[in-house]
Amino acid sequence: MNELRDESPLALSRPDLMRGQNFINGTWCDAVKGGWHEVSDPATDTVFSRVPDSTAEDGKAAANAAARAFTSWRNVSARDRSRLLKRWHQLILDNSEDLARLMSREQGKPLAEARGEATFGAAYVEWFAEQAVRSNGDMLVPGMPGRQQMVVREPVGVVAAVTPWNFPLAMIARKIAPALAAGCTVVAKPAEDTPLTALALVALAEEAGFPAGVINIVTASRPGTPDTVGSWLNDPRVRKLTFTGSTPVGKYLARASSDTLKRLSLELGGNAPFIVFEDADIPAAVDGLMRGKFRNSGQTCVSPNRVYVHDAVYAEFVEQLKVAVEALTIGPAEREDSLVGPMINGRAIEKIERHVRDALDQGATLITGGHSVRNEIADGPFYYAPTILGDAKESMTLHCEETFGPLVPLFRFTDEADVINRANDTSYGLAAYFYSQDPARIWRVSGQLEAGVIGINEGVFASEVAPFGGIKESGYGREGSHYGLDDYLQFKYLCQGNLA
Q1: What is the pLDDT, as a whole number, of residue 7?
Q2: Is it the case that residue 376 has pLDDT exceeding 70?
Q3: Which Pfam families match (predicted)?
Q4: Among all residues, which ones are annotated catalytic?
Q5: Among 1.10.357.10, 3.40.309.10, 3.30.390.30, 3.20.20.240, what is the CATH number of 272-463?
Q6: Residue-wise pLDDT tens digits, 251-293
Q7: Which of 63, 67, 183, 224 keeps 20 to 30 A from 382, CA to CA?
Q8: pLDDT of residue 377
Q9: With contact defined as beta carbons under 8 Å apart, do 293 and 303 qualify?
Q10: 15-268+475-492: CATH superfamily
Q11: d(CA 167, CA 430)
């Protein structure tokens, strides 16, 4: 049950990467209570594997192992930690095709995208391998004679990482790599829909030679997750929690971990505006929207959710966008020409349908799409046609809720100040995009948009060298870049006296 079926077009060249157990203290093991959780292929909605359905006992065992390992791992030299991370990075690259196939099988994204994610996730491991030897402190100018004052950086401690289903490799790499580089140990819980990629990634980390207990990973079903993660929230040895997911869950984790005053990194929901000004390069704006919106079939937290188009270029933009959207190929991952895969599950389809129905009821214009898809190519229940809705209004549900699917609602505007106010009219602040060729407007608008990441004439901006994170109810903390290492380090001030 823990290997892909031989007839699968996404079969692995290394079946040993298909793991179906928790990894605790350097050992692959079943859940303490023996429970199992099934993993389905969203392209067909058929079960093809299973993993442990862990409980608090498994979470505690992982935390125990991480706490014991921390006492020695924190003292491993930065250069040696860097070498291990570089070995892991190379193993990810060497096995990227299998990782991509596994990712596509459990998440549904087109294989080309999964290959890109494997390389992208590996880039974070490489980046933090290099940053491990650069976590320098500071020598301070003494405040008075006879003193030496300095600041050193030390690892926070045990880190709990809880990751989402939409980027099952990149998200866990982006969290584990800086933790290990800083000298922290890790307990991790991947999303219940996509645990297999994370387990394979940890199997490669084991192969790279990380000591027992430094990385621990447990899996759990949707009902079992609160119990498993809850064991870490109340554990004072777990000093940091890093989470990517919905804002309601992020708020719960912040409240539940407050008694132990954990350090938190929360990358939460988004409601990204995408603004096309009258002076925009329209073909470039259409291309940027296509790449930003339909990556992972719209199932990304930075996906443009509200598209504002100036009246003067609205008709031209719609014409070009419609042609581009209708050229997208819908199908399963194993087809090399697939550009839009299935949604992750039935709940995702229901949300898209609800948003489309509500918008049409309120007067939106259906430009293309607007229906589920099932045919001889996309033969499964979770496919939805890429959809454009015109004449969207702020009263529609899709304005205030993140759709998380291949739906583009178009809002008209005529005034710069008005569209900025409308773009900022959300409790979220993760990403925003705008297209303009006016240098003064570029600086003016980028300074007024309320988001942690701004795409200016660019639809895809993720990079290991840049800090990623949001403001307002999209969370706090940053991942990636040299800033991303700071979230796993604490500062200690040393003052030595009587030196005169």
Answers
A1: 63
A2: yes
A3: Aldedh (PF00171)
A4: 267
A5: 3.40.309.10
A6: 999 999 999 999 999 999 999 999 999 999 999 999 999 999 9
A7: 224
A8: 93
A9: yes
A10: Aldehyde Dehydrogenase; Chain A, domain 1 (3.40.605.10)
A11: 17
